[in-house]
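Incident log, support desk, overnight shift.

02:14 A customer reports that sequence design results differ from what the structure should imply. Their input is reproduced verbatim below. On-call engineer (initials T.W.) acknowledged and began investigating.
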């Protein structure tokens, strides 16, 4: 699986956070893996680990976003946009092997596929303020 495909799978899994209690996320992770048909392997392990790390830092990520998103608090953002922003902010701030520009570009590309017509520019604008 390419890095982009792995990132997309993490996004899809992370999106479930908006609809389930934190205590249900272990079960949601297992359901996601079953539904996606992914076989055990390094990609699956990487997805699980990265998802867990992001989940642990959601409040911290949201605080960073709330500091720069003028007129937009995370509580008002669309769920797709917020999930993409969280993923990108995590990569920008906590993963040294992902350049900031790559994290932003990947989030914008996913926003074009999964968000509204305005999502890509919104996601880009918020993330650019964090660089």
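02:41 Re-run completed on a clean worker. Output:
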């Amino acid at each position: 699986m390419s890095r982009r495909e792995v990132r997309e799978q993490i996004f899809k899994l992370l999106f479930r956070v908006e609809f389930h209690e934190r205590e249900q996320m272990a079960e949601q992770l297992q359901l996601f893996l079953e539904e996606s048909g992914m076989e055990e392997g390094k990609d699956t392990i990487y997805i699980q680990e990265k998802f867990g790390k992001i989940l642990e830092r959601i409040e911290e990520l949201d605080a960073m976003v709330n500091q720069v998103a003028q007129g937009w608090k995370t509580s008002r953002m669309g769920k797709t946009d917020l999930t993409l922003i969280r993923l990108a902010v995590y990569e920008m701030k906590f993963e040294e092997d992902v350049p900031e520009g790559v994290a932003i570009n990947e989030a914008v590309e996913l926003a074009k596929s999964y968000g509204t017509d305005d999502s890509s520019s919104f996601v880009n604008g918020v993330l650019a303020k964090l660089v």
